[in-house]
Amino acid sequence: MFSNGHQTTPPQPPPTTSTTPATTQNPPQLLPITTTTTTHDPKKLTLIPLIFLIYFEVAGGPYGEEPAVQAAGPLLAILGFLIFPFIWSIPEALITAELSTAFPGNGGFVIWADAAFGPFFGSLMGTWKFLSGVINIAAFPVLCVDYLKNIFSVFSGGYPRYLAVTLSTLLLSFVNYLGLSIVGYFAVFLGIISLLPFIIMSLIAIPQIKPHRWLSLGQKEVKHDWNLFFNTLFWNLNFWDNVSTLAGEVKNPQKIFPKALFIAVIFTCLAYIIPLMAVIGAVSVDQNEWEAGFMAQAAEIISGKWLKLWIEIGAVLSGIGLFEAQLSSSAYQVLGMAELGFLPKFFGVRSKGFGTPWVGIVLSTVITLSVSFMNFTDIISSANFLYSLGMLLEFASFVWLRRKYPAMKRPYRVPMGIPGLVVMCLVPSVFLVFIMAIATKVVYLVSGLMTVAGVGWYFFIKYCKAKKWFKFSENGAEFITIGNGEGI
């Protein structure tokens, strides 16, 4: 199932050849890795940059959490950001930790679905996740320009706005081309600078906090908007699995991945809940004012215009970090899919100077630019719908791999049996079904068309292989031993 050219790394003893299964009486387990055999250790991601890349895959700071208060009131917003991580974020992070260490290669969730259910579902997973990823990326340059127009009014509309979005997208894509290690340390810098004003604001707010405000259920005349509330929680605490597509670029992923995910979950949740409680406790305003971007207004109330400006600049830096992290995931997903044989070999070409997947970066950037100037509310909703479908397939792949290959080596293993894993996945799955059930007809239509296109793409690639129109990695040439007689 895994292509020729994937490096197989048995723990002990010396490995067999790439085309011959192990022949010992108790064969060791082999781990499929989609990275090429040429490695550049100085360019591999280490713990701290990986933590901040995960942070920017998921959050990027408290920007965007405000509508939860507007939708359901202070108490439920606080409870939401306290409880929802246990329902959604932690299960998703645990699954990512186990499967990324069992299959430490570029491609992530594509490898998992392929290993669990075969190439059709691996390809469909790739389509769903890639389209949702690159369409969501398009929002971040627009978000940056929206914040900049508060400082420079010339960016409010017209050609200056279009030019700013285009140039910022191209510039940020070029930074991605310079190398994942550079992107990782850039994420560390952006994370510190964009979070610092929230730390300062929370400290300054302490004497002004009135704890009874935390217990408010909101204004009686403001109707609860549960759709907005749950969507705000969902998309502020989502995308933990995106970093799995970078597993082949991480130094010692079996050890570092679980640690990075554990720290990132705590770090991200604290980055949300502390400023939220500080502002709710210190600022008394009409509930309807809690729109996206209100944190900057609250900073001015608590401390002054200087802090408001810093948070607005921090929002731009956060958008840059989100763009870089998610573009990296999309580009390395393309690389991994080429190495797995889901795409022609050309899509896996790396830059000779920087080792980055420049074809994946260009492809992701072109699609991102193509939707940047559209009124893409329904398109983004459709992309999120596709991501939800992908997550349901991911949960199913996780449980099925446990059942199908119980003896497979898992450097990190979620400490539950299959019944416990089913329950752990069932709770967020119910939430995903709820999110999809309340989608609009337009979202159903666009998502359906994208899914049909994904199915068509799989059979088109299969036809191309049969006709030998393009060169592909030889998918299926290797036999991956899982345990005593088990193999993929």
Automatic annotation (TrEMBL):
Regions of biased composition (Low complexity) lie at 17-37
* Transmembrane regions listed in the UniProt entry: 45-63, 69-90, 102-122, 160-179, 185-206, 261-285, 309-332, 353-373, 385-402, 414-436, 442-461
Q: Name one Pfam family in it.
A: AA_permease_2
What ranges does the record give for the region Disordered, renumbered to this chain? 1-37
Q: Name one GO cellular component term.
A: plasma membrane
What are the record keywords, sorted?
Answer: Cell membrane, Membrane, Symport, Transmembrane, Transmembrane helix, Transport
Main subcellular location: membrane
- The molecule here is called Polyamine transporter At3g13620
Which organism does this record belong to?
A: Rhododendron griersonianum
